[in-house]
Amino acid sequence: MKKILTASQTREADAFTIKNEPITSIDLMERASQVFVDEFQKLRIDAGNVQVVCGVGNNGGDGLAISRLLMDKGINVEVILLKFSNNLSEDCQINLDRITDKVSVIKPSQYETGDTHLIIDAIFGSGLNRPVEGDLCEVIEKINTSFAQVVSVDIPSGLFTDESGSEGAIIRADHTITFQWPKLSFLLPESGMYAGQFHVVDIGLNKTFIESAETGLFYQSDNVYRYLHQRGKFQHKGDFGRVYVIAGSLGKVGAAYLCASAVLRSGAGLLTVHVPKCGMTPLQSSLPEAMLSLDTHEEIITSIPFDPQTDVYCLGPAIGINNQTVKGFRDFLEKRPKRLVIDADGLNIISRNKELFDLLPEQTVITPHVGEFHRLFGKCNDGKERIRVAQNIAEKRNLIIVLKGAHTSIVLPNRKVVFNCTGNPGMATAGSGDVLVGIIAGFIAQGLSSANAAELGVYIHGKAGDLARDYLGEWSLMASDLLIHLPKAIRND
């Protein structure tokens, strides 16, 4: 798991590394540029002609060093320095002096993309603190409207490191090779699209500084697999937990199937599914491994059985918001279940009956998408504000909030936020969330803490989606495909 540090902390990390490694600033820039080039070559982009567009600061210095290193590898590089200021940073000037005769120094108003196949953007770095204005807007517009692929150095020019805003001109990169950790803006929906696919590379900043840096923001990695419990030879199904799924209504019994299947695929030992009577035949025939509990009503859920031996209840997919269902939900919560995962209509019921928050057991996991989040907690202006609100609510109510999105964030009661790194746009399809809550509930049943189950469940859910994408493509992916690829995602082959 990587820490996500701010722009000011990044500058402090650079300075600490230079002082304590020790290493000169220019040599640290050289190291970062070499790592960039190594990662760039791994992308295997058919570069043809490469144009590197540099600014006058340290990001421009990176661009100049990258240009030299690419030339050394025999790549045809056109190097452009946009001289929008006479004050070049010291390291930018040093790298300019190293290849002066191969650099076109021009005013921004003179810039043209030409017939280049690929543009490396090194105009502005992570220290930018005001929107791009003037002739540089035209430069960025020309790059964005060209047919060239764009790879940004550390951060797309014009994008702020720590904000979700998109004021002024911003490069829309196809790839961003970013140094040491992802930037917060890459992970938020209002700004993340500018980074394209981002690739985090280690440039060797001081580990002591990084370990001591204070932050509540983290980026998940595959070390999350350490939460998985190894199975013993003499264990039996009772050792792997009991789950009760409450899901489905007339015409939406599929949600119960997807959720329940995910519970079993994630390794839970015993599963009971409570559905309306109309769900008996489809579930009994499609999922014989599950025990069924039938509501007295034919089409909706009106009551929820309480079983003190159940380790975790998973509640909400497609149950609707009928008044009888709301009453059954309220009556159930008043019996104080031990552990609970709530999604979909369970959240919609709470959003209309906010007093139900007070009945939720501690460490309840809720999994809202943005719309459900706003209904629960009020409208937020952007992704950064949503994270801040989620931190406050999680801390106040001792909840785990799984805020779903391109980089689903798991917000914990201690205000820690973990952004997920798996998943793809093909997972934006009906039923995907039903699978997610089933996975999380299954892991809780096996003895994981609610926080660890949420982190692991979100990661594996996304990885199953990535495996399905690799096989089917993003356009054809369905939620049931996640179930097919879930075993391989859990095995981490």
Task: Name the features.
single chain; 493 residues; alpha/beta; Rossmann fold; UDP-N-acetylmuramoyl-L-alanine:D-glutamate ligase; eleven-stranded mixed beta sheet; 18 strands
Describe this structure in words.
The chain is an alpha/beta fold and 493 residues long. The protein folds into two domains: 2-214, YjeF N-terminal domain (Rossmann fold, 3-Layer(aba) Sandwich), CATH 3.40.50; 222-491, Ribokinase (UDP-N-acetylmuramoyl-L-alanine:D-glutamate ligase, 3-Layer(aba) Sandwich). It has 15 helices and 18 strands. The protein has helices at residues 7-20, 25-42, 58-72, 90-98, 135-144, 207-212, 253-265, 280-286, 323-333, 345-352, 370-377, 383-397, 432-445, 450-472, 479-491, and strands spanning 2-3, 50-54, 77-82, 103-106, 118-122, 149-153, 175-179, 197-201, 217-219, 242-246, 270-275, 291-294, 312-315, 340-342, 365-366, 400-403, 409-411, 417-419. Helix 3 links the parallel strand 2 (50-54) and strand 3. The chain is elongated, with a radius of gyration of 26 Å. The two termini are 20 Å apart.
